[in-house]
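Page 37, continued from 36.
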């Protein structure tokens, strides 16, 4: 169990938990945290959503997450998200932080998340991408300034989950998101992150067909 209390932990991923929490649909009863890692977001979600499922394929990381949150109401699942049998359209909120770039096919992973999102529910992804070109370079200075100011006040807490550098650029991820999730919003965030937010219409759409075409 980590000696640093949860409320004092901070890093570039934790900074954007609020983006997810602010988009929990009114009356949501179920949520899925894809690539939960240390389980911090899942535990926060469990305070506002009755049924929270947290999935990760790293058994050791998941065991540490459970040990770090004794008594939490989170349902911990060790398995491969792409193939694990989760019921379609069964989660009012599907969320993922710093996970999408781990997939060889991020478009396919996004489509799978969309399939699992219930009609009227929300899909929120906080992701990493690779900078390229002048437009991306313009984000570097505010990112560095924000990091230095915040890290001067708060110690940067390191996740125990494995990391990998992103292969796709921000522009590429924007195109992928628009193609898989028409109507979604893609937003650059200050600390080398982006957000994808999509609300599934009340009427169930043939998302499986869209996934096959990604």
């Amino acid at each position: 169990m980590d000696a640093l209390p949860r409320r004092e932990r901070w890093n570039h991923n934790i900074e954007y938990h609020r983006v997810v929490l602010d988009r929990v649909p009114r009356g949501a009863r179920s949520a899925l945290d894809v690539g939960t890692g240390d389980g911090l977001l899942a535990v926060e979600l469990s305070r506002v959503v009755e049924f929270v499922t947290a999935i990760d394929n790293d058994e050791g990381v998941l065991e540490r997450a459970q040990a770090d949150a004794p008594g939490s109401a989170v349902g911990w699942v060790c398995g491969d998200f792409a193939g694990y049998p989760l019921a379609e359209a069964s989660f009012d909120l599907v969320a993922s932080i710093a996970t999408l770039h781990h997939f060889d096919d991020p478009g396919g992973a996004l489509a799978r998340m969309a399939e699992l999102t219930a009609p009227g529910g929300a899909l929120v992804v906080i992701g990493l991408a690779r900078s390229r070109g002048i437009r991306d370079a313009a984000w570097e200075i505010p990112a560095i300034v924000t990091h230095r100011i915040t890290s001067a006040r708060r110690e940067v807490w390191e996740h125990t989950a494995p990391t990998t550098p992103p292969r796709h650029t921000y522009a590429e991820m924007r195109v992928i998101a628009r193609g898989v999730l028409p109507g979604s919003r893609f937003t650059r965030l200050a600390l080398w992150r982006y957000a994808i937010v999509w609300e599934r219409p009340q009427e169930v759409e043939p998302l499986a067909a869209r996934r096959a075409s990604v």
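The mean pLDDT is 90. Flag for discussion at group meeting. The helical segments are 17-21, 40-45, 59-68, 106-116, 134-137, 140-153, 170-180, 207-213.
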